[in-house]
Amino acid sequence: MPDPLDDYRRKRNFAATPEPAPGLPLRRTDDLFVVHRHEARSLHYDLRLEHDGVLKSWAVPRGFSYDPADKRLAVRTEDHPLEYEHFHGRIPKGQYGAGTMQIWDRGRYRLLRTDRWADAMQQGELKLLLFGRHLRGEWHLVRTQQAKNSWLLFKSRDRYAGIARDRALGINLDAARDQPVPLDVQPMRWQAEAAPVSMRDPDWLFEMEFLGLRTLAHRTEAGSRLLGVDATPPSIAAGLTALRCEQALVDGVLVALDARGHPSPTLLQQALQQRAEPPLAYYAFDLLQWEDYDLRPLSLLERKAALRTLVPDGQPVLFVDHVAGAGEALLAAIAGAGLPAAIGKRASSRYVSGASADWRRIPVAATTTPAATHHGAAPPPEREPRWKPSNLGKVYWPAEGYTKGDLLAYYHAVAEALLPHLRDRPVHLNRFPDGIDGKSFYQREVKDGAPDWLRTVPIPHDGSTVPHHVIDDLDALLHVVNLGSIDLHPWLSRTASLDQPDWAVLDLDPKQAPFAHVIRIARSAGRLLRGIGLRPLLKTSGKSGMHIFVPLRSGYGYDHARMFLEAVSRVLLREVGDVATIERSPEKRDGKVYLDFLQNRRSQTIVPPYAVRPVGGASVSAPLLWDELEAADLSPRQFTIRTMPARLQRHGDLFRNALDDRQDLQPAILLLEELLRGR
Ligand code: MN
């Protein structure tokens, strides 16, 4: 009988590769799976299932997707030895599979509906139940007729199914402990005596405080319930059971709503004594446990991102959203809604039991000032817009026939995702009152005759001050679009900290260079930045370039961001110098892509995600998942005012972390210096 590992052996030279040579066959349990992230010539993921003493393997070029409609190619590859379960490292150049191999996920699996591998393989259909950190629930592997080893991998419609993310929770679970949280855990509380925190501190998140019963909630397959409540109301138990997981421990507040939809502690008492049946809601704001993992060591930001993924829409269990570093607008909205306070929480904080200085209560009365209520208050519903649309039928894109009305409708559709990226920043306008082929002008200064409700910020300039627009809400956004602003140009910093950018931005500017070169450089830049411990974000510029963002912790100046990205660019040139340049003069760039780090300067701007560009096709700046760089047909022109609203529905705001995931450059700079010195 042929040894199933012959192929594996034949392809490798064990004197040159660190990969394990097959040892004696180990008797195992046939229930292990492991996924390697393999950055070889092209990035792919290797799914390996333990069976019959070996790891059956499939290479999945585009990775995994929790969207059941997203069927991913999976190419059956040679069986690997069981020792490969633990292998990670660098396979040297010239060897088979040269590149880096990382363990991306590992866990147990079960075959569903048939217990016999041989049958399933013969039928060409494996139904798998996976219990990993990233891969959870039911997955299908189905052989196709296309080519010899070609299979499709896709998610089944189960409670984990959802959008096209590649991991169940959408976050990195490395720091989570593999053990459940005890149910008698004491909840975290705000500290009364702690010093006040600035409502503009970007290291803090601000949430609404709800009037109701603070209680932990436990979701299990055996029955979901509120801890500390004698009889969990059935609507809430059902809402917990609808969470996209099998087990969870959630922190939140149970609220009863009166006829006007306002929280009523009196009604809540009556409901808990089963003397009244008002509508109930459980406002979930933290996640302590997911499946068998204790998430308390993770940052609040990661826990909230995970919780957001678990909570389906339209249930009595609701996700409590937050604002980051813009507490005043929230406080004004809270005051407007007649609620007492906001809760400030440090974004990087772990979940600890008892009172902590990382949580502060901020009463409305103590901080409300005319300035704080002046802007950003939640508008009362069904109010007339404060701006008047004009010339809606004017054609802005002659080739496509798109009108100004289409442009306004697009911005209205994406406003919820776009506005957080614009809020509280000076904005320069680029106005095209007659569409993309007409004359245009760049406008920094707010002109006389601007409506008095529009927020402006005075910016010192050459001994005087220049008022700039600030776009905090839908009215302000649609007002400036109605003026003919097709794209928008916000600063990298906010009004209260004009010298401190929120992001370090690397602009890949190709001019005439092919987009394939931009893609290659972006891949390289992503690898490098991740390699020095950062979590960069990527978007198309909407024209032919790409923007890479690293969100910064507070305290960094523009010089820091610029010098850091200059060093990054210089390291990058070693790998992609044939297609990239840092030459400032366009004539001397030889058709190469310009790595523009000089945009990291006060008063420089960058178009935000979802901004429309004044070019043919009405393309827009589109946030991308890094793995989307691997798609063969990626084109910046596929993201337009026609296609982006549906994409946003499908993925959510992929750029949300630009606001939330603020990063420390210091450890990255040290690693970068080593790279600069080392090679
Ligand atoms: Mn591979």
Strand share of the residues? 25-35%
> What is the CA-CA span between the terminal residues?
49 Å
CATH architecture of the largest domain: 2-Layer Sandwich
Spans of 5+ residues with little confidence (pLDDT < 50)?
368-383
The name CATH uses for the topology of the largest domain is: D-amino Acid Aminotransferase, Chain A, domain 1
Describe the protein in words.
With 679 residues, the protein is α+β, with helices and mostly antiparallel strands. The chain has four domains: 6-155, no CATH class; 177-375, DNA ligase/mRNA capping enzyme (D-amino Acid Aminotransferase, Chain A, domain 1), CATH 3.30.470.30; 395-490, no CATH class; 503-676, DNA primase, PRIM domain. Strands 1-2-3-4-9-8-7-6 form an eight-stranded antiparallel barrel. A hairpin with a 5-residue loop joins strand 32 and strand 33 (546-551). The longest helix is centred in the middle third of the chain and has 19 residues, at 404-422. The model is unreliable at 368-383 (pLDDT under 50).
Fold blueprint:
Layout: H1 6-10, E1 32-39, E2 43-51, E3 54-60, E4 72-81, E5 89-91, E6 99-111, H2 117-123, E7 125-131, E8 136-143, E9 150-155, E10 188-190, E11 204-208, E12 213-219, E13 225-226, H3 234-241, E14 248-256, H4 265-272, E15 280-290, E16 293-294, H5 300-310, E17 317-319, E18 323-324, H6 327-336, E19 341-346, E20 354-356, E21 359-363, H7 364-367, H8 370-374, E22 395-397, E23 402-403, H9 404-422, E24 426-431, E25 441-443, E26 456-461, E27 464-470, H10 474-482, E28 485-490, E29 493-494, E30 497-501, E31 503-509, H11 515-531, E32 537-540, E33 546-551, H12 558-576, E34 580-581, E35 593-596, E36 623-624, H13 644-651, H14 657-660, H15 666-678
Parallel strand pairs: 10-20, 15-17, 34-35
Antiparallel strand pairs: 1-2, 1-6, 2-3, 3-4, 4-9, 5-6, 6-7, 7-8, 8-9, 11-18, 11-19, 12-13, 12-14, 14-15, 15-16, 19-21, 22-23, 24-25, 24-27, 24-28, 26-27, 29-30, 31-33, 31-35, 32-33, 32-36
Helix pairs in contact: 9-10, 11-12, 12-15
